[in-house]
Amino acid sequence: MAKVIDLQEHRVNKEIRLEKAMIDHYEQLMLYIKHRVNIREKVRAKVIFSEKVGCKSSSKFNTLEEQLFLNWFAFDYTTVQGLTIYQIFLKHHHRLDDALHALFMVSVLEPYEIIKKNEDYITAVNLQTNIICQLKYAVDSQNKSFFFARTVPIFDKFLCLGGIFQKVSNNKISSLLNDYNNQEKIGWRTYLKKYAIQYVWNGKTEHE
């Protein structure tokens, strides 16, 4: 009798392979930014980023601030060519399946509220879509309940691209939702692509 395929085991193995491929893809992108992107592009991006979040362009970023800058620089910053860094990266490097790299392309920093957490993952609700999801990322239980993350779906879970930004105050979340609801020009994801970093930023501003 033919061996019965364990569909659940097959699904888990496929999820593991897919997750590894996506993590490798993201790491290749970060290496590309570190070694291949023109320094003048990085300087231009730092000036634009600083204007958006209200800090000095000469500011030295701490680890988390640098992580936020690189996350924005990779996916949301528009180069002088009119493309994102990720789009340029795809022109010269191995691609995932078209459907998968499309998920990277449209990803944005989104706000979540933590429902439950343990050492391996967070169960959280997306504040706009109300979708409850599991994010494969450990968190500090002493940090706040709200966070921003750029994610891509892997079956029933979501993979964080570049970690999570968890020290977000209730006031910033309220400001984001109020600001978005008081404008009628653009949709939610487009709004986040343009403005999310202003609500994630926790560093010093020009006015402090």
Explained architecture:
The protein has 208 residues and is an alpha+beta fold. The chain has helices at residues 7-35, 39-53, 63-75, 85-92, 98-106, 170-181, 188-200, and strands at 109-117, 122-126, 132-135, 146-154, 157-165. The chain has a 5-stranded mixed beta barrel with strand order 1-2-3-5-4. A hairpin with a 4-residue loop joins β1 (109-117) and β2. α6 (170-181) runs antiparallel to α7.
Key descriptive features of the protein:
208 residues, alpha+beta, 7 helices, 5-stranded mixed beta barrel
Task: Lay out the secondary structure.
Layout: H1 7-35, H2 39-53, H3 63-75, H4 85-92, H5 98-106, E1 109-117, E2 122-126, E3 132-135, E4 146-154, E5 157-165, H6 170-181, H7 188-200
Parallel strand pairs: 3-5
Antiparallel strand pairs: 1-2, 1-4, 2-3, 4-5
